[in-house]
Amino acid sequence: MKKENTTRKRSVWGWVKRIFLFLFLAQLFYIIILKWVDPPVTLTQLGSLFSGDGLKRDYVNGDELSYNMKLAVIASEDQIFPDHDGFDWKSINKAMKYNEKKPNRIKGASTISQQTAKNVFLWQGRSWIRKAFEVYFTKMIEWIWGKKRILEVYLNVIEMGKGIYGTEAAAQAYFKKPAGKLSRREAAMIAACLPNPKKLTVKPLSRYVAGKCGWIQQQMQNLEDDPDVQKIIRTK
Prior knowledge:
Elements: H1 2-33, H2 43-51, E1 56-57, H3 67-77, H4 89-101, H5 112-121, H6 128-144, H7 147-157, E2 159-161, E3 164-165, H8 167-175, H9 184-192, H10 207-223, H11 227-233
Parallel strand pairs: 1-3
Antiparallel strand pairs: 2-3
Helix pairs in contact: 3-9, 3-10, 5-6, 5-7, 9-10
C-alpha cells in the first residue's frame, strides 16, 4: 500500500511539474510574440466591456503614434523611463514611506514599464500576488521588448478615458484626428488624465487636467533635448 501511495504521489508531482513547465513556456512564448504582435485583448479591456463602460480601441504602429504623445507620457508618468531597469526605486521608497504615514491615501510609483506589464498581462488591483507577477513581467518585457516597444504597447493599451484604450482611440474621441496628428497641448491633455482616466476627463475638461497639462508641456520642453529620450521617441 505504501508503495502504491508513493507511486501515486510521484505521478501527481510529475504532472504538476509538466503543467508548470507548459505554463512557463506558454507565457514566455506569448511575451516573445508580443514583441512584434499587438495584444489581442487585455483583462482590463474585457472588464471595461462587461462592466458597461464599453471598449474603444484601435492599435497603431509606433511610427503612427504622435511624437508629442510619446514625449508627453514620459514627461508626465516616468521621466527616467529611458534610464531605469523597469523600476524607479527612489520613487518606490518615497511612496512606501508616504503610504505608511497615510494608509488611507495610497500613493503609487509605477513606471511606464510596470503599467504596461500590468495592463497587458494582469488584472487591476493591489494584492501582493498581482504585484509579484507585475515584477516578473516588468523584468521580462524590459529584457525582451526594449524601451521603444514597451512605450509603443503602453500607448496602445492604456486606458485614456472611460472605455477608451490607446492613443488612437483617444485622439479620435477627443479631437477627431489620428494619433499621429496630436499637438503638444492635446497630447499633454491626454497624458494629464492617465492617473485616473475615468474621473480626470479630457472632454469635458476637468479642472485637474486643465491645470496639469500646462505643467506637462513645460516638462516636455525640459526633456525633449535629452538624447536618451530622443532615441526612444524618434521613429528613425
